[in-house]
């Protein structure tokens, strides 16, 4: 079956005739301009049955748990990705949003994605654009996680469900034909995706605001602009069909929303005001105690964990470092407050409980 990699409810011509075509007998291998030595197959999704040479050429590694090795595979060029992006840009508003070609994540990279996301049996994973379902199935099979894959291509949805059944994980790995942009993300503790830069960017506001703090997002090969990843790894993929011979994986841990002004107390009598400015996991701001203010130094927010400190002059002229270490919980900042006197009047640090509530709300990033 030949069709463009970009499925559309309303059939439309690809932007460039050269990008999406099928080779019935053999894959078409090109060297994309500016990518020396890179081999790419400019084709759309193809169902490839056992024995086809395309399976290994495109997939990089055979399915570890399938004796049939039946696999729906495709490899696309950098040019293919860009063509998809161009199509996306041209699509009228009422067009469906499927503009990402099907390219399966190689098996070693699937494992690395699950490792990076620390996926375990307590997790609920959503793979956005799940292809043949391998990420969700592998999470269920090897980590005991539950999850769903959402995918627009009905053949891939069917293939995924069949494979989950065959491997005995159908209760934990489920698939539906659904637009990822219309998917409820809130049940997820882990999101995985292998999409395109502009799709990641289009999803970013929802990922940042709808997911619970601490939810892990793992993306294969594409970042999210100025939302810097909390961790990044490179996995060798010598047979990679586009770009350099490795995959880059990005991990973000969704930060709590702490932007805004807080009023708090520490110990029996201490009072403070905190003006926080948040850019994803990075925070800056000002701490004010007894009419004196100082800029804070904060570590990046890790899920719901917030830690900052500031040095202020006290009423008696004693400088002290004030440090908060705690969590954003149910709309409050709850943790400990440590005061360390500085200079000549050095005394042992004093740690007391601290709590703050919002004085004003601010817009989410
Ligand atoms: C690069 S493949 C990744 C497949 C799989 N996640 C993996 O890592 O092996 C991207 C998949 O996203 C699907 N897709 C693209 N746009 C989509 C959308 N709007 N909603 C759901 N799936 C989509 C494509 O059909 C394709 O199968």
Molecular structure report:
By secondary structure, the protein is α+β, with helices and mostly antiparallel strands. It folds into two domains: 29-253, Vaccinia Virus protein VP39 (Rossmann fold); 260-360, Beta Barrel (Lipocalin). It has helices at 54-59, 78-90, 107-116, 134-143, 154-166, 197-210; strands at residues 29-30, 40-41, 46-48, 71-73, 124-128, 146-151, 173-177, 190-193, 216-220, 231-236, 246-253, 260-266, 270-279, 282-289, 292-295, 297-298, 305-313, 319-329, 332-341, 350-360. The protein binds S-adenosylmethionine. S-adenosylmethionine (SAM) is lined by residues 97-98, 100, 102-105, 127, 129-131, 134-135, 150-153, 156, 179-181, 194, 220.
Decide which structural class fits the backbone.
alpha+beta
What general outline do the C-alpha atoms trace? Answer: elongated
Measure the end-to-end span. 44 Å
Order of helices and strands: EEEHEHHEHEHEEHEEEEEEEEEEEE
Order of strands, main sheet, comes to 15-14-13-12-20-19-18-17-16
Q: Give a short account of the largest sheet.
A: 9 strands, antiparallel
CATH uppermost class of the largest domain = Alpha Beta
Which key phrases capture this entry?
9-stranded antiparallel sheet; binds S-adenosylmethionine; 6 helices; 365 residues; alpha+beta; single chain; 2 domains; 7-stranded mixed sheet; Rossmann fold
């Amino acid at each position: 079956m030949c069709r463009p990699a970009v499925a559309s409810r309303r059939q439309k011509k690809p932007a460039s005739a050269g990008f999406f075509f099928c080779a019935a007998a053999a894959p078409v291998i090109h060297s994309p301009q500016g990518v020396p030595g890179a081999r790419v197959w400019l084709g759309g999704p193809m169902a490839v049955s056992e024995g086809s040479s395309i399976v290994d050429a495109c997939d990089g590694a055979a399915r570890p748990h399938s004796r049939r090795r039946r696999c729906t595979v495709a490899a696309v060029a950098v040019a293919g990705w860009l063509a998809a992006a161009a199509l996306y840009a041209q699509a009228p508003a009422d067009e469906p949003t499927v503009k990402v070609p099907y390219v399966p994540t190689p098996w070693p990279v699937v494992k690395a994605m699950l490792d990076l996301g620390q996926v375990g049996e307590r997790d609920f994973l959503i793979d956005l654009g799940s292809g043949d379902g391998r990420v969700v199935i592998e999470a269920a099979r090897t980590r005991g996680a539950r999850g769903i894959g959402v995918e627009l291509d009905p053949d891939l949805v069917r293939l995924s469900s069949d494979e989950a059944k065959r491997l005995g994980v159908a209760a934990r790995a489920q698939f539906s034909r659904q637009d990822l942009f219309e998917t409820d993300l809130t049940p997820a503790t882990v999101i995985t995706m292998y999409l395109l830069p502009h799709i990641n960017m289009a999803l970013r506001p929802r990922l940042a605001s709808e997911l619970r703090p601490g939810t892990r997002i793992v993306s294969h090969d594409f970042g999210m602009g100025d939302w810097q990843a909390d961790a990044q790894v490179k996995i060798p993929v010598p047979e990679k069909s586009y770009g350099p011979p490795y995959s880059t994986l990005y991990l973000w841990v969704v930060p709590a929303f702490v932007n805004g002004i807080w009023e708090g107390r520490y110990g029996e009598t201490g009072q403070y005001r905190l003006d926080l400015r948040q850019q994803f996991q990075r925070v800056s701001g000002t701490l004010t105690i007894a009419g004196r203010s100082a800029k804070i130094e904060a570590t990046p927010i890790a899920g719901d964990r917030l830690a900052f400190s500031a040095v202020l002059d006290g009423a008696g002229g004693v400088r002290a470092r004030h440090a908060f270490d705690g969590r954003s919980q149910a709309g409050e900042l709850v943790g400990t407050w440590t005061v360390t006197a500085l200079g000549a009047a050095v005394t042992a640090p004093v740690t007391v409980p601290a709590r703050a509530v919002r004085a004003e709300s601010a817009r989410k990033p």
